[in-house]
TrEMBL record:
Superkingdom field: Bacteria
GO molecular function: glucosamine-6-phosphate deaminase activity
Pathway it works in: Amino-sugar metabolism; N-acetylneuraminate degradation; D-fructose 6-phosphate from N-acetylneuraminate: step 5/5
Source organism of this protein record: Thermophilibacter provencensis
Domain Glucosamine/galactosamine-6-phosphate isomerase, chain residue ranges per copy: 12-224
Signal peptide location: none
Membrane-crossing segments per the record: none
Stretches assigned to coiled coil: none
Name under which the protein is recorded: Glucosamine-6-phosphate deaminase
Family, per entry: Belongs to the glucosamine/galactosamine-6-phosphate isomerase family. NagB subfamily.
Catalytic reaction list: alpha-D-glucosamine 6-phosphate + H2O = beta-D-fructose 6-phosphate + NH4(+)
The enzyme's E.C. designation: 3.5.99.6
Length: 244
């Protein structure tokens, strides 16, 4: 695991965007695994700016997002499909048919989740998977639990995640209680992984991800077993990590 120290959120966002831009430049038809949440918004802004400057071409890029709230349609302003459209896809020359977010309204969800994993594998797996991290160490919506769940599946969100994500909804009662998420195996199938984290609320989770025991009670800790992970984090998020 390589840790890249950023001065602040802007610096983290620029550094993370530069890594994704390098991937798209080196392999124009790459497969990107993408993430939502507040943390990657600045990364996406920098990618849009690079595209507008004529430095990036997304025309052959395929994307697979990590997760989606169960029950939210893609045009709901808190759905992750909507987030991706507004923060990235609407502003670059990506073919929307090449962008994939789990369908929050899927009916036979076990079959649909299995199809999502098959599609990621058929595309050749993610060349680069972008991840944020939850305050409790979750990645995607893989919440702390008793085992690492391999494939895309439906999860019950924890109270702490519902609480943390309620800031984006009108009221906490509006936050869906379940979500679909790529499993740990689907995430670990990526050829390279880029984790972004900022702020002191993430300090414990970042420490446990990088230095804690590899346990499903901190799902991000599994990333220690992946051969190609870069963590780009600001000083606050790295406050509990040893200076290297
Ligand atoms: N499912 C998403 C995660 O993918 C994200 O990493 C996490 C942290 O979000 P934020 O970046 O807003 O702190 O929030 C959500 O729960």
């Amino acid at each position: 695991m390589r840790i890249v120290r950023a001065k602040d959120y802007e610096d983290m966002s620029r550094k993370a965007a530069a890594i994704i831009a390098a991937q798209v430049t080196l392999k124009p038809d790459c497969v990107l695994g993408l993430a939502t949440g507040s943390t990657p918004i600045g990364t996406y802004k920098n990618l849009v700016a690079a595209y507008e400057a004529g430095d990036l071409d997304f025309s052959q890029v395929k994307t697979y997002n990590l997760d989606e709230y169960r029950g939210l349609p893609g045009d709901h302003d808190q759905s992750y499909r909507y987030f991706m459209n507004v923060n990235l896809f609407d502003h670059v020359n990506i073919d929307k048919a090449n962008t994939h977010v789990p369908d929050g309204l899927m009916e036979d969800y076990e079959a649909a989740c299995a199809e999502y994993d098959e599609a990621v594998a058929a595309a050749g797996h993610q060349d680069l998977q972008l991840l944020g991290i939850g305050n409790n160490g979750h990645i995607g919506f893989n919440e702390p639990c008793d085992s690492f769940i391999k494939g895309t599946h439906c999860v019950d969100l924890t109270e702490s995640t519902i609480q943390a994500n309620s800031r984006l909804f009108d009221s906490i009662d509006d936050v869906p209680r379940q979500a679909y998420t790529m499993g740990i195996g689907t995430i670990m199938g990526a050829k390279s992984i880029l984790v972004v984290a900022n702020g002191d609320a993430k300090a414990q989770a970042v420490h446990d991800m990088c230095y804690g025991p590899i346990v499903p009670s901190c799902p991000a800790s599994i990333l220690q077993l992946h051969p190609n992970v870069v963590v780009v984090a600001d000083e606050a998020a790295l406050a509990l990590c040893p200076a290297e």
